[in-house]
Write a structure and sequence with these properties.
Chain lengths: 399, 399
């Protein structure tokens, strides 16, 4: 006999994104980086492996290299967050950060607040802890805090405990591209603060803004020490580094450090990142990334408006993704399947809903008329060709 | 109210080894590598970051780089194991491998078989899954399989389910240095095979044999596909790489891949390892490591026999550790504390018993007369000075 947690763990399988170099199709699939903008890290690596060899090749303490934590603390302070080196912990990418926060807070049967739709790779991580989901929709300003308040009040009336935390991607949300407004952020912090509910602010795309002004992060606005800011170098430098961080109250991080039984995050890649920064590599890299991804976005937006005028979407001001709404009668799963046959991979929108469990009754209400398209990985030429193939697949379903 | 699993997780704190470069003491503490033998990885890194840049800086699939898996499969075949690339998965170090195997098998309340004493960093990992321990002593031939059989028979009579797996470090056991004999390995495989109990064979030190013949690994002797061989490059090349592997039946690995929601193991360090091997780096590195650690062992053995003749131990034929037995009346915790005050850090033996929970009644039977000394990290001069300080601490307790 298997417990509910074990069943949850067994069900906690990844939706299975396709590696773009492993399939013979144009990839608008998962958020792979554009290989064209990968920086030259050879000098950084050489210094890491000579000057810093003793540090880079030895075990590293759970908190990570102090110098990198200092750098991240300064980077966060530049972004309006009042943190110190003690409030930063290095982790093996943002997903490892979320896993560790779950280890700290989550008990089987607990609830967490998520957006509907949400970042799909977080779903199996949360499920693997036996968590249930309170799904809250978004509007143009982000997570609907009024609806969240009503749901929390209902839970109180029902005698249910408060959720263990609220999880959201506040900047250039994955998959919708929405950036939460300032008013909404303040309302969310008030609601969470009144009820002492921690917030996990996962923000990989924040610095990939192509136009407009940044909104202060939840972490910058937080006065209660309740926000866990999860960051990563995957979108700033390269995903292959597998280096992320948690910015949070130091007492919480000390507890997380005791749960981090992985032998420490790789000090070699930490040091490579640091040495890259010493050469002012990040400034140049951000320019390169923003320029490339803004052009990719423009290209995909233009191609979609040209070839698929019946498909609705809002062009995001940054990040990696377009979230398409298909006309009535077009099932996103059927379209994604047909599109893949025609040589372009896209992800049907139902994969981004936590309540989506293929084969389960709970999946019935999940919308079937969205597609997520990542414009990050493909070249402009591939974007043109891929949208053309998607359009052919779409029109083949109409006839 | 917290569940038993949550309480277990909260209690699952690391014993807190000290980073040797963070304390002002000679370190015979955890198994840090000797910095003097760290190889030059600069050429390997340069190739990884130029020729293989697209691969090294992109996300990697959960199984890891195919070329590295091929290499490891060949390495295991050279060691008598019948495996193919499909039977190898790359993980973030051996501890991550154990964590993933627990995710596959473990349910709260399950039991696992461990040695008493055992590798102490595995204790919090196993505890974090809510596992209980069936502790089996060792003799000179390794885990006492007769005692294990009696315990399993007793569990059957008590109506208890079999353990989920057997965990052991079969070569140069941590902390005892014992290598399991061939007869004992075959007896263990028969017992586990008859009852369909998987075995996790954690073998970081296998290639660090200073003298004598290697005994076939459990994985090489396995005819039932029940052994999970957990390997790591931490002891072969450098701990800072955080690259390990699981060699196991491919159907099991496919299930583990679905639980590996970490964004993949770092492809940059995987590629650096591979490029290092292309230059025949491992052959030279193993000679360097064996030479250095054999000399460290000889030095520590001689110093202990000279300065602490009342302390009993067997000199191991490989690995990193000496396991000391103190005379009656000397408490290892008191001695370790005094030794640290005198400038040498050692780990009291009770930390290596899974039933050791400071402050709990269950800890009462845990032996208090062992010390583990790692000879890996310190130089020969430091070994002399450290044993001298330990001897002073010891003699101060006698007076």
């Amino acid at each position: 006999l298997l417990s509910a947690l074990t069943l949850a763990r067994r069900a906690a399988t990844l939706p299975g994104p396709l590696h773009p170099e492993a399939v013979d199709a144009i990839s608008f699939d998962s958020g792979f980086a554009s290989p064209g903008i990968f920086p030259d890290l050879t000098r950084a690596a050489e210094r890491a492996l000579t000057t810093y060899r003793r540090e880079a090749l030895q075990y590293c303490l759970p908190f990570g290299l102090a110098a990198l934590r200092e750098w991240i603390a300064a980077y966060m302070r530049d972004d309006g967050v009042d943190v110190d080196v003690e409030d930063v912990m290095i982790v093996n990418g943002a997903k490892n950060g979320l896993d560790l926060i779950c280890r700290l807070f989550a008990e089987e049967g607990d609830a967490v607040v998520v957006t509907a739709p949400m970042y799909f790779t977080a779903i199996p991580i949360l499920r693997s802890f036996g968590l249930s989901f309170i799904e809250i929709p978004q509007d143009r300003e982000g997570l609907d805090v009024k609806q969240l308040e009503l749901r929390l009040q209902q839970r109180e009336r029902d005698g249910l405990p408060p959720p263990k935390f609220i999880y959201d991607v506040t900047d250039f949300h994955n998959p919708t591209g929405i950036t939460m407004s300032l008013d909404r952020r303040q309302a969310l912090l008030r609601l969470a603060g009144d009820r002492s509910i921690p917030i996990v602010e996962d923000s990989p795309y924040r610095k990939l803004r192509f136009e407009g002004e940044a909104v202060p992060s939840l972490k910058a606005l937080d006065r209660n020490g309740m926000v866990f800011a999860v960051g990563t170098f995957s979108k700033l430098i390269a995903p292959g580094l597998r280096i992320g961080w948690i910015g949070a109250d130091r007492s919480m991080l000390r507890r997380i450090a005791q749960l981090k039984s992985d032998g420490g995050t790789c000090p070699l890649t930490q040091r490579i990142v640091l040495e890259f920064f010493k050469d002012d590599g990040l400034t140049q890299q951000l320019v390169r990334a923003r320029t490339a991804y803004a052009a990719h976005r423009d290209h995909m937006v233009a191609a979609l408006r040209r070839e698929l005028p019946d498909v609705a979407f809002s062009a995001p001001h940054g990040g990696y993704y377009l979230w398409l709404k298909l006309p009535d009668g077009i099932d996103s799963g059927v379209l994604a399947h047909r599109a893949f046959e025609m040589g372009v991979s896209v992800i049907p929108g139902d994969a981004f809903f936590a309540s989506n469990e293929p084969g389960s009754a709970r999946s019935k209400g999940v919308p079937k008329h969205h597609l997520r398209l990542a414009y990050s990985y493909s070249t402009e030429q591939e974007i043109d060709e891929g949208v053309n193939r998607l359009s052919k697949a779409y029109h083949s379903l109409l006839s």
